[in-house]
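Quick one, C-alpha cells below:
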C-alpha cells in the first residue's frame, strides 16, 4: 500500500490544522453572503456552486487528507440525491430529514465500498472507484421504475425550511439553504481535519508504512474516512435534489465525478478552502465561457485549468500562498 501521487496530494502546511475560526476565515464566509445581495439575478448559479462545493469538500477529505484518489464520488452524490428525492416524492418532503436519509444511504454504500477501495494502491483505487461509479450509474439507469432512468426523477416538492421559508422560483431560499448546509459540512470537515483522527489520516498519506508501528490501524482509518466522505457527498446530492426539485441520472455519471476532481485540483488539494474556491472558479468560468463561446468553451476551459495548475503549483490556494510569500519577503527586505 502506498500513498497518493505527489502531483495530486498537497504539501502539508507548516502548521497543524485548527478547528478554530480565524478572522480571515470569517471574512471569507462573508463573501457568499455579500454575493446574495450583489448578484440577485444569479442566485440559481450561486446555489449550484455552493452545492458542488459541499461535494468537493467531501472529496477533499479522502484525497487531500487520506490520499485516496477517487473517481466515484458522483455515485454517492447521486445516491444522496435519489434518496432525498424519492423520500419527497413518497410524501415526506421535510428538508432536514432528506439530508439525514441521503447521508445514511450514501454512507452505507460508501462503507461497503471502502472495504474494496482501501485494499489497493493508488491506481488500483482509482480504477475501483471508477468501477463503483459505473456500476451505480448503470444500476440507476436500469431501475427506471424507481429513478426515472434517462427521464430523471421529477415531481419533487420540498417543504419550507423550518416550516417558514418556502423554496421560490427566484432561488432565494435555495441559496441560503445550500450556503447553510455548506457551512455546517465545512465546519464538520474542519473539525475532523484538526482531530487526532484527521492527523492520523495525514500520517497515513505521508508515511503509510510508519503508522502501524504507532499502533494505527491503517485500513480502518481509511475505511472510516471514505465512509464519512461518501455520506457528506450524499448530503450534497440531497441539497441538489431539494433545491432543483429534479434528479437526473447524470448526477451519478463519471463526468460529474471528474468535474468534482477537477474543481478540487483547481482550488488546491488538502486545504478544504481550496474545495470551495475551486468549485466557484470552475462553475463561474464554465458559465462565462459557455456564454462567450458556446461551441468551443471547453478549449478555453482547458487553457484556464493548465494555467492555474502550472503557475499556481497547488491550484488557486497555491498561487495565493506564493503571492503572500513573495510579498512577505519584499516586506522583510524593505524593513
Amino acid at each position: 500500500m502506498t500513498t497518493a501521487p505527489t502531483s495530486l496530494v498537497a504539501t502539508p502546511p507548516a502548521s497543524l490544522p485548527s478547528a478554530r475560526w480565524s478572522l480571515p476565515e470569517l471574512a471569507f464566509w462573508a463573501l457568499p453572503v455579500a454575493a446574495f445581495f450583489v448578484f440577485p439575478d444569479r442566485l440559481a448559479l450561486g446555489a449550484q456552486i455552493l452545492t458542488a462545493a459541499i461535494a468537493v469538500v467531501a472529496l477533499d477529505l479522502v484525497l487531500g487528507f487520506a490520499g485516496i484518489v477517487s473517481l466515484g464520488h458522483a455515485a454517492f452524490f447521486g445516491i444522496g440525491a435519489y434518496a432525498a428525492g424519492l423520500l419527497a416524492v413518497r410524501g415526506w418532503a421535510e428538508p432536514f430529514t432528506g439530508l439525514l436519509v441521503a447521508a445514511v444511504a450514501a454512507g452505507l454504500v460508501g462503507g461497503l465500498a471502502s472495504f474494496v477501495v482501501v485494499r489497493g494502491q493508488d491506481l488500483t483505487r482509482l480504477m475501483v472507484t471508477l468501477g463503483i461509479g459505473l456500476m451505480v450509474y448503470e444500476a440507476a439507469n436500469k431501475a427506471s421504475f424507481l429513478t426515472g432512468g434517462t427521464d430523471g426523477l421529477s415531481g419533487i416538492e420540498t417543504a419550507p425550511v423550518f416550516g417558514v421559508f418556502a423554496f421560490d422560483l427566484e432561488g432565494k431560499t435555495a441559496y441560503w439553504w445550500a450556503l447553510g448546509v455548506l457551512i455546517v459540512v465545512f465546519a464538520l470537515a474542519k473539525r475532523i481535519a484538526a482531530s487526532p483522527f484527521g492527523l492520523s489520516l495525514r500520517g497515513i498519506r505521508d508515511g503509510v508504512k510508519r503508522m502501524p508501528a504507532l499502533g494505527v490501524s491503517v485500513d480502518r482509518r481509511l475505511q472510516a474516512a471514505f465512509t464519512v466522505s461518501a455520506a457528506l457527498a450524499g448530503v450534497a446530492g440531497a441539497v441538489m435534489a431539494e433545491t432543483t426539485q429534479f434528479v437526473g441520472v447524470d448526477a451519478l455519471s463519471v463526468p460529474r465525478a471528474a468535474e468534482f476532481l477537477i474543481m478540487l485540483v483547481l482550488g488546491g488539494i488538502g486545504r478544504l478552502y481550496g474545495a470551495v474556491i475551486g468549485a466557484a472558479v470552475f462553475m463561474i468560468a464554465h458559465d462565462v465561457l459557455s456564454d462567450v463561446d458556446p461551441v468551443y468553451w471547453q478549449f478555453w476551459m482547458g487553457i484556464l485549468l493548465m494555467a492555474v495548475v502550472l503557475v499556481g503549483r497547488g491550484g488557486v490556494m497555491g498561487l495565493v500562498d506564493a503571492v503572500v510569500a513573495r510579498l512577505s519577503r519584499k516586506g522583510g527586505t524593505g524593513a
